[in-house]
Amino acid sequence: MADWILAALAGLAAGGALVVGAVIAWRFRVPTKVVASVMAFGSGVLISALAYDLVLEAQAEGGFWPTVSGFATGAVVYVAANRLLDRLDQRNPRGRGESAGTGVGIALGALLDGIPESAVLGLSMVGGSGVSVPVLLAIVISNVPEGLSSTAELKNEGRSARYVFTLWIGIALASAVAAVLGFVLLDGASGSTTAFITALAAGAILAMICDTMIPEAFRTTHAFTGLLVTSGFLLSYAVHLAA
Prior knowledge:
mainly alpha, 0% strand, globular
């Protein structure tokens, strides 16, 4: 199987986790505490994956400055995009006692999370090393509760099944495209370039965790948030050592 097809499948699996969460929310009424607990656990998994499988890899590929500049750029771009969407009232900040905002806003928020994540999956395959299993695992674990919680809110707003699943399937397909582009466009790129892009994704993901996942989880799990995040971190660390 061609490498670009594997990259597409990895991106589709990552984005498909959003669809899985949507299906669960549409068919069942999942307790808020369960969603929040998975969100906290997924935060820890992502933090470990970005630390060991993105930042350290970027450092090895291109050195200190491309890694630092990429990481900072990713965080700034993510935060700036979120602020812009908030000003346009397309996506209300989560974790502040407000409603989820419009369906378009939810889709844009998921895309902001998913595009850099999927692109780095494709990038991880450059050089024939295969898909980064810890990163893929982290993305899947974090995307399921996001699709679940957002779909539950859309369902409460009276959105149709056709609308909801068209939304999430479209985002899953966009994730597959991002993974392919991450592989194709960066195959043969210099170490500094790949380091910058990898670190950029890591910075965006960390900003997303702090802006969205941990505040939303803490709103429900409170004192247990730290333990859940730590558990997720240790699981991802173990996967990293075993991979």
